[in-house]
Amino acid sequence: MRIYHNQLTSTLNQGVKPVWLIFGDEPWQKNNSLFAIKEHAQQQGYSEHIRLTFDDKFDWSLLQQEYQAMSLFSSQRIIELELTSNKIGDKGAKLLTDLSQQLHQDIVLLIHGGKLDAGTQKRKWFSLLANQGCFLPLYDIEGKQLHQWVQRQARHYQLNLLPDVVLQLTELFEGNLNALDQELQKLAILFGQQLITSEDAEQLLIKQAKFNPFQLIDALLTGKINKAISMLDQLQQDGTAIGQLIWFVHKEIKQLAMMQEALTQGENFNQLCNEYRIWDKRKPLYQHALKTITAKNIAQAQSRLAEVDLLAKSASDFNPFVLLADVIISLYHGDELSALPLDYEYA
Questions:
Q1: Under DSSP, is residue 17 helix (H, G, I), strand (E, B) or coil?
Q2: Of 57, 9, 64, which Cα lies nearest the Cα of 32?
Q3: Could you tell me which Pfam families the record lists for this protein (predicted)?
Q4: Residue 107 CA: distances (Å) to CA of 139, 158, 268, 308
């Protein structure tokens, strides 16, 4: 049985599963899933908890002994096995295959690890366990699913958020559910059940958000200009070197120019992604940017970025972060900005 995180509560309410397989790299969902499964089992009388960790020195017979042992303290137990690597070898595969024939309702076997590849999901041990229990793969939550996740968590904390606050939260903390959940908890402490507007939340959220240049590039590619400018502001307050950000933005705009030129010459998008080592997950970002940003605007942004680089190195009369924001805006609104020189102070 395969479920997703938003189905966990309803699945738990259907009854105890003899085995759970939790695999993926998203930390909030993993911690939340493990806590919920163990808490539910304990409420059903599984009062003893044994925790094992697989590493390169792990003795698989220990798991077998624990599973077959009679407990002096409880007739119902949770045995949790953390896999620090999903490469469990022939011994591990054989033991888990054998164990799949011995599963019973007095023990909840909870196995978890990092992201599982498709090949491992087809292995005999995994299929046998998943068929008798529940496999919960953990994926990053994005877009519409992230909005729904925020709304669910807001209900959980009894928060009363206006829709634009939900949008602010998802834009500022996309890709970091732990930070997003912490911000919701802070809002619950500060505002209780009071209606929270974007003005109420804005200052708190901007101050708490932590960004890196890679997130800035993602906002640039997806055309989320307001988000990109908010990130630049926070990066400036955090003391990020402007030269580092200029390098990232220059590299990305130069790559967009080359990809756009190649596409006009008939090259295939997927082949270009392989050439530039763009992962499948990031392909939609580039598809959006290449479809939305014109060649004229890319050329203009490159020209203005060269000016920003020069001004950042030679003049202290300008705020280079503001000028870099101009470059990002010009990618999407170059026509409106073309008449405005960057050295506007002296124009």
A1: coil
A2: 9
A3: DNA_pol3_delt_C, DNA_pol3_delta
A4: 27, 35, 53, 63
Residue 347 has pLDDT above 60, yes or no: no
Q: Burial code of 40-79, b = ≥16 C-beta within 10 A, e = fewer?
A: bbeeeebeeebebebeeebebeebeebbeeeeeeeebbbb
The terminus-to-terminus CA distance of the chain in angstroms comes to 67
Can you tell me the distance from the alpha carbon of 223 to that of 217, in angstroms, rounded to the nearest whole number?
10
- pLDDT tens per residue, range 84-126: 998 999 999 999 999 999 999 999 999 999 999 999 999 999 9
Q: How far apart are CA 286 and CA 281, in angstroms?
A: 10
Please count the CA atoms within 13 angstroms of the CA of 111 that sit on its side-chain side. 23
**Lookup: tokens for 143:** 């877009």
Six-digit token string for 212: 């890196």
Map residue 110 onto helix, strand or coil: strand
Long-range contacts, 302-305 (Cβ 8 Å, 24+) = 302/250, 302/253, 302/254, 302/257, 304/330, 304/342, 305/246, 305/249, 305/250, 305/253
- How many angstroms separate the CA atoms of 19 and 24, rounded? 17
pTM of the model: 0.65
